[in-house]
Write a structure and sequence with these properties.
Radius of gyration: 16 Å
Structural class: alpha/beta
Distance between the termini: 21 Å
Helix content: 25-40%
CATH superfamily: Vaccinia Virus protein VP39
Strand order of the largest sheet: 3-2-1-4-5-8-6-7
CATH class: Alpha Beta
Oligomer: single chain
Length: 237
């Protein structure tokens, strides 16, 4: 059954309050700006974006959407935070990007009207902010074309991720605002893998992400105990 109310109002409020700071590279969104080149390179390495129709689920202020739009045929970014979308729309206008558009709609609702319309679907740093991540995985699978690619990134529910992603990032290093993440919503790779399999998505790559707070450098590795990224491909039929 499709979950059309798969949203946490407190999460929307949290990101709406910060919406005006999305494109400030020294703001709470600095980590997204710093890791964005790595995200784009990883996606491109798995499935080149040239000529592709892309959907960015949980696009926020459009940081990844704009980067992909510079390479893809077209990009649609969707989110339920109105203020963030307005920031994204304004920045795209200022950037002169004509092939990126934004829509305030849930991924589940969009799946009912645009199923099988996208070559690539990205859902990055979003699954850990919704009540029902499996519902999002299902909708992403419905939206991508057979043989198309779906990308996820999220946080593992492990003692190490609690130490690094919450205590370290939010309370010690102050990289993220306190309360950004809720540990109970973190997702084990095995849980995400099950949701992917249940919805016809085959895992083709999984990477962990490392970070050096002194150099502010991000890199991909095999350690999925904290942040991890998953590339999947929808079965051809």
């Amino acid at each position: 059954m499709t979950n059309l109310n798969n949203v946490d109002p407190s999460e929307l409020s949290k990101f709406s309050d910060l919406a005006h700071r999305w494109w400030d590279t020294q703001s709470e969104f600095r980590p997204l700006h710093e890791m964005n080149p790595l995200r784009l390179a990883w996606i491109e390495g798995c499935s080149p974006l040239a000529g592709q129709k892309v959907l960015d689920v949980g696009c926020g202020g459009g940081i990844l959407s704009e980067a992909m739009a510079a390479r893809a045929l077209s990009v649609k970014g969707i989110d339920l935070a109105s203020k963030s979308l307005k920031v994204a729309q304004l920045h795209a206008l200022e950037s002169g990007l004509l092939n990126v558009q934004y829509q305030e709609v849930s991924v589940e609702a969009l799946a009912q009207s645009e199923a099988g319309q996208y070559d690539v679907v990205t859902c990055m740093e979003m699954l850990e902010h919704v009540p029902d991540y499996a519902s999002v995985v299902k909708a992403c699978s419905q939206l991508v074309k057979p043989g198309g690619f779906v990308y996820f990134s999220t946080l593992n529910r492990s003692p190490k991720s609690y130490l690094f992603a919450i205590l370290g990032a939010e309370y010690i290093l102050n990289i993220l605002p306190k309360g950004t993440h809720e540990y109970a919503k973190f997702i084990k790779p095995s849980e995400l893998a099950r949701a992917q399999r249940d919805n016809g998505l085959q895992e083709i790559d999984i990477k962990g992400m490392g970070y050096n707070p002194i150099t502010r450098r991000y890199w991909l590795n095999k350690d999925v105990s904290v942040n991890y990224w998953v590339a999947t491909q929808r079965s051809p039929n």
